[in-house]
Write a structure and sequence with these properties.
Blueprint (H helix, E strand, L loop, with lengths): L4 H7 L5 H8 L2 H14 L4 H4 L3 H9 L8 E2 L10 H15 L2 H8 L4 H12 L6 E4 L2 H11 L7 E5 L4 H14 L2 E5 L8 H11 L4 E7 L11 H10 L3 E5 L11 H4 L3 E5 L11 E5 L1 H4 L27 H5 L1 H11 L1 H19 L5 E3 L12 E5 L4 H12 L1 E2 L1 E5 L2 E6 L7 H16 L1
Parallel strand pairs: 1-11, 3-4, 3-5, 5-6, 6-7
Antiparallel strand pairs: 2-8, 7-8, 9-10, 10-13, 12-13
This protein binds pyridoxal-5'-phosphate (PLP).
Length: 430
């Protein structure tokens, strides 16, 4: 779908417009970005995915290290300059008189951030809360749902540790029962996941916790089908969307879940320490907030934001992050990340013993990919990449998942990935 730049410019008419314009559209960058967007306006996301000249322009909008190659963008992503500048601007402003500028002025703008996030999520703004990360968003749900001793929760061993710890703590303190699924990954078959969830259901099942994208290897789960199954049994669904939001092209209500939590400092490239919670309107009242609010049984989504003083600058800079993201478009990001994954994997497949532990199927994959090389210790590969080749990656060792995780960002260039694969070949032959 072509990018509607007039729409974007209209959107910039909001509170942060002058800041965004001055930061992104400094004369040189403005002209080159403008050309890049105009040139590709009617190109499909799939064709733009391999257009290095386009992504080179996007790269210039970031402050990418000249020498250290970061292939762990799934851990946390960098912010475009426009976001960094907005943060600096609002931070300086806050420091001119914190209690006035943060509490009386900037905090009053939180509903505008909610509005922008809601538009991106495709959800009503009264179902969106701003949190500091995905863990906080999801722990509001995990620790706030009304459950009784003996109630069962279905979750997987391949979920994210913070979420697993939260469920275990609830089980320990309150006697709820955890029913564990153990995935053999990768999988490219909906019924594999559906059958596991289905077989774990009992009359006592109250909740299914579903990780949309498994962080360890980028496996995408068929969330819509799983929530459909859950609804047939009056089971509530919690979706951990830390890696799907702003990476995969979907709207939250399409997933059919009751609760969805995500980081914004991953694929949205918003400031560090930002997250979002979605709670379906009819579920808000019965969900207790993690930080007690004046009326914990209110149906106002803002009760989940009662965590005391926070950095207003961090929150305010979410808006330019959304604007910059929308300028590119989620679909283009999704296709670019998938293209880069396929690009480096194809080249690395010539290395003897190279194995990937992630799906290569557009229904189940994304830009994150896990690999190993037979006969070579993943620790040695990671250390040599870091120390000898200045390439940052992360070694994964969790449950039955082992290897090295690679997650480029949209501005990673194919020549960066050539450098990475060449480094692997040198390590393999050393
Ligand atoms: C699947 C998943 N869930 C939750 C989180 C926690 O995110 P945050 O650090 O924003 O709390 C992560 C972080 O990597 C993750 O990968």
């Amino acid at each position: 779908m072509p990018i509607d730049r007039r729409h974007f410019m209209r959107k910039l008419g909001g509170a942060t417009s002058s800041l965004v314009l001055s930061a992104v559209f400094n004369p040189a960058l403005a002209t080159s970005l403008d050309h890049a967007f105009t040139r590709t306006q009617y190109h499909s996301a799939e064709s733009v995915a391999s257009d290095e000249a386009f992504w080179q322009q996007i790269r210039l909008a970031y402050t990418v290290s000249a020498t250290r190659l970061d292939l762990n963008n799934g851990g946390v992503s960098p912010q475009p300059k426009v976001v960094q500048e907005a943060f600096n601007h609002y931070n300086r402003m806050s420091n001119e008189g914190p209690s006035y500028f943060m509490w009386r002025d900037l905090d009053k703008g939180r509903d505008l951030i909610r509005q922008e996030l809601a538009a991106l999520a495709g959800a009503p703004q009264e179902e969106i809360a701003i949190t500091r990360n995905a863990s906080e968003a999801l722990e509001n749900v995990i620790l706030g749902m009304r459950l009784n001793p003996g109630d069962e929760v279905i979750l997987s061993r391949q979920g994210y540790p913070n979420m697993i710890h939260a469920w275990k703590q609830r089980a320990m303190r309150e006697g709820i029962v955890l029913k564990w699924l153990d995935f053999e990954l990768p999988q490219t078959n909906n019924s594999y996941f559906l059958d596991l969830y289905k077989n774990a259901i009992t009359p006592k099942t109250k909740v299914m916790h579903i990780t949309h994208v498994i962080n360890w290897n980028g496996q995408v789960l068929p969330v819509k089908l799983i929530t459909q199954l859950a609804r047939q049994h009056q089971i509530e669904t919690v979706v951990d969307g830390a890696h799907s939001f702003a990476q995969l092209d979907f709207k939250i209500p399409e997933l059919g879940c009751d609760y969805f939590g995500t980081s914004l400092h991953k694929w949205l490239c918003a400031p560090f320490g930002t997250g979002m919670l979605y709670v379906k309107k009819e579920r808000i009242k019965n969900l207790y907030p993690l930080f007690a609010a004046e009326d914990p049984e209110s149906d106002n989504i803002r009760k989940f934001e009662n965590f005391g003083t926070r950095s207003s600058a961090t929150e305010q800079a979410i808006i330019p992050a959304i604007q910059f993201h929308e300028l590119i478009g989620t679909k283009r990001k999704q296709e670019r990340l998938r293209y880069l994954k396929n690009y480096w994997v194809k080249k690395a497949q010539t290395i003897p013993g190279f194995r990937i532990h992630s799906p290569l199927d557009p229904n189940f994959d994304c830009g994150i990919c896990l690999f190993s090389i037979d006969g070579l210790d993943s620790y040695k590969i990671t250390t040599e990449l870091t120390n000898k080749h200045r390439i940052h990656v992360v070694k994964i060792d969790w449950q039955n998942i082992n290897g090295i995780r690679i997650s480029p960002n949209v501005f990673t260039l194919t020549k960066d990935l050539d450098r990475f694969v060449n480094a692997l070949k040198i390590i393999k032959n050393s």
